[in-house]
Each structure stands twice: as C-alpha cells, then as structure tokens.
Amino acid sequence: MADVEFSWASEMAGVVAPVYMGHAYQSMLAENDSSEARLLKCMTRGETVYLPMLVKDLGDGCKEAYSAYGYGGLVGALTLTDTDIEHVRHYLAAESIVALFIRHSPFLANQHRWPTSLTELNRYTYATTLQLSDSFDAYLKGIPQKLRWSVNYARRAGLQVTFRPLSECPKDRIRTFYQLYSGLMHQKQTSGYYLFSENFFIEHGCVLSAHCELAEIFDKETGNLLAGAFFLIDKTGWVHYHLSAATPGAMKLQAMELLMASALQRYGNSGYRNMHLGGGHALDESDGLSRFKSKFSTERLDFCCTKLVCDESRYQSERAKMPLKNPAYFLISDAREQ
Predict the structure, then answer these.
(1) What is the rounded distance in angstroms from the CA atom of residue 169 to the CA atom of residue 160?
(2) Under a CB-based contact definition with an 8 Å cutoff, are residues 330 and 99 in contact?
(3) Which one of 197, 201, 202, 272 has the lowest number of neighbouring Cβ atoms within 10 Å?
(4) Please, which residues bridge with residue 308 across strands?
C-alpha cells in the first residue's frame, strides 16, 4: 500500500465543509470561470483530507488548478508533510496539472496544514464573534461609541436594512443589486474578473438558495437601492460577508455601517457563532476597505496563499508559448489575460 493514496471524489464523505468549498459554490464558480470543479481526496496515516479546486484546460493537454474565488485549501484534520507534498506534485503532474494555486481559508487557519515554506502571507482578513442581544438598541450599547454614532446617524437619516434569503428573492431584486455593484466596480476601474456578470449574481440564488441572503437599504422617497450585500450562510456556524456595494450618497449617510451592524446583530440572534468579514486591498491595512472591516472585528486573521509548481518544465514551456500580459502572475491563464 502506498504511503499516500489519491483519488478524485464526488463529495466530502462525513465532512461538514464551509460553503466556499461545497459542491454548489464550486460548481457555480467553475461555470463562471469556464473551468471544471474537481475534488482531490488524499488518504495517508489513517486520515483523509480533501482539496477542492477548479481545473482550467490551457490546451495541448496542459492544465492548471486553483482555489475558487473566495477561499479554499484543505478540509480535514490531516497536516501534510514535505514528503506528502511531493506526492501531491507527482499525482497532479500525472493528471496534466502543471501548477496549483491555493487561497487558504483564514477562518479555518488551514494554511497550517501545509509546510510553512510553501505558504505566503497575502494580507489580513477580519472576523468577529457573534452574540445574542435583546434588541438592536441593546446591541448598539455594546459597540464602540464612534461606531454607534455612525449607525445612529444612518438611522436618523431614515435608513433601514432588510434581509431576504435568495430562495425567496425575486430575480429582479438581484439584478438591481448587480447593477449597483457593477456601476461601483466600473467606477473603481476594478480588474475585469471582479466585475462578474449579472448571470453570476442570479446564479447565487439558483445554486446557493437559502445559504445566501441579500441585505438591502432603499431610499424611502425614490425607492432606489442605496446599498446591498450578499451574506453566505455556513453550516459550520460561520456567516461570510461576500459581495457588497453602495452609492456614494449612501456611504456619506453611514449606510454600510448600519448594514454591517444590522447583520452582526441579526446573525448573532439567529444562532451563528462568527462572521468572517473578508480582507481589504493592502497588506499594510492602509486602504479604506481594511479600515472599514477592522472597525467591526474582534480578530485579525492571516490570509495565506500557496503556489505549487507540479511540473516545472511544462509550466515554464507553457509560460513561454506566447507573450504574457501580466508576467508577475503565477497562474498561466492570469498571466496571459488581456
């Protein structure tokens, strides 16, 4: 019997996986990326661990694999050794996968399941512990005064937050949220991938259903959407702040502070234990998104990535096939992207 046994699995037997690593989310992102969702099963030393990945065909029998947008990495209790990693390289290379890029999950701290020499700190993300509260006003009494002022400023402006599971959300509401998100991303000149598409937003409702909720703030006078956010609901007890957008006017009214505070109070009272807020844009936490999320956090987490070349010669020859638009990128498809 080999020291390590690999196989492609259809599901994680006996494992409660975070929503990001579940079949529904992985399949949705695979369709968005024109990739294939695969689940690698690894058995060694009496333990089993799973590694979800998306596999992209580069042509000429060459492929690369990566974690879906969001978070990924190992699911299970096994810690891989350097020897195990060599087995991973050889197995994936034999499957024509020349490279693997992993976005580890800060809320699982599963970067520690890999040799430290193969993990790199990318940035920090933020999480908070959720608690029960008798009312929203009671919740507000327990948050910092400056943040409480922001939330009450939005309330005095007449703003209110509503939450709706996507299983109960008309597609037109999701389309309206996408239009707000898309407009903001174009304004910020966000890179093409993160613009996503209207269909991708609609698919959240079709695929994730009750495991995703839409929070909304409307202008009472015009009926226009001022701010919105997707929250992913996890069977592990976590809630994840996923995609969001707000108008400049709503930002000035502290709408996002109200939205986030409302979410923390809502999910705490719904029995969830933690919320992962995600990260900002910069490792030094100097950007506005980092500052916003850190205001609500009780814990700062390491977000680490792993770049694993499985077949060095094929990886290098594939990168040399054509001029690279983004040569600093590890994944070949990203490096080639126009």
Answers:
(1) 18
(2) yes
(3) 197
(4) 100
Read off the amino acid at residue 105: S
The amino acid at residue 83 is T
CATH architecture of 5-122+304-336: 3-Layer(aba) Sandwich (3.40)
- Sequence ranges of the domains in the chain: 5-122+304-336, 131-272
What's the angle, vertex CA 275, arms to CA 269 and CA 279, rounded to 5?
155
Q: For 191-242, write each residue's pLDDT tens digit.
A: 788 899 999 999 999 999 999 999 999 999 999 999 999 999 999 999 999 9
Which residues fall within 8 angstroms of residue 306, CB to CB, at 6 or more apart? 73, 100, 101, 102, 104, 111, 114, 118, 119, 120
Strand order in the sheet with 5-8: 5-8, 36-44, 47-59, 62-66, 97-103, 299-309, 120-129, 274-279, 238-246, 225-233, 212-218, 162-165
Coil vs helix vs strand at 80: coil
pLDDT digits (tens, 9 = 90+) for 3-13: 889 999 999 98
DSSP notation for 215-249: EEEE-TTT--EEEEEEEEE-TTSEEEEEEEEE-HH
Fold of 131-272: Aminopeptidase (3.40.630)
What's the pTM value of the predicted model, to 2 decimals? 0.94
The partner residues of 48 in beta bridges, in order of sequence, read 43
